[in-house]
Write a structure and sequence with these properties.
Radius of gyration: 17 Å
Helix content: 40-55%
Strand content: 5-15%
Number of strands: 5
């Protein structure tokens, strides 16, 4: 399903606080079957949400780049890790992370919403939005951060609310 980013942002701003509160309660309860439900819901979500019609994560967030990511991507771009960091990344001294210098992401094609380094993208990107992690309660803080940025996370929370009401 195509994501209407404007409509999503309006809906998310109306519901984000309530969704975050729900995620807190769900994480505190940790009901039986939560992780299995999350796995099932993850599959459903990505049958309904087409990330290529959105790319809001690439437009508004930055991944952290591990040393492994930097080596892999710089090799793919035929440059050195040092040159790659100098041209594309900035070091966040507070969090001790390498992050994109630019936003939206410099590797995002804004016309197609496709990543020019998709095959070698950072681990942070390949795992995003982290819906299918084995222990959902360990990622509640991530879902709370992403619920108003990522339509897939938003849809997951909607479905988790319906699941929680039935259980």
């Amino acid at each position: 399903m195509k994501v209407n980013l404007r409509s999503f942002k309006q809906k998310a701003s109306r519901n984000a606080k309530q969704f975050r509160s729900f995620l807190t309660r769900l994480g505190n309860k940790n009901p039986k079957g939560l992780d299995a439900a999350a796995q099932k819901i993850n599959v459903e979500v990505f049958q309904e949400v087409d990330c290529l019609t959105c790319a809001n994560c690439c437009k508004t967030m930055t991944p952290t780049f591990t040393n492994t990511d930097i080596k892999r991507i710089s090799a793919h771009l035929n440059t050195t890790p040092a040159a790659f960091k100098k041209e594309w990344l900035v070091y966040d001294k507070k969090d001790k992370d390498w992050m994109n210098r630019l936003q939206p992401c410099q590797f995002l094609n804004l016309k197609t919403n496709m990543c020019s380094i998709y095959e070698v993208r950072p681990a942070d990107c390949s795992g995003f939005p982290h819906l299918a992690k084995r222990k959902m309660t360990e990622y509640m803080h991530v879902h709370k951060q992403n619920v108003d940025l990522c339509p897939a996370t938003y849809k997951m929370v909607e479905k988790m609310q319906a699941w929680a009401e039935m259980n």
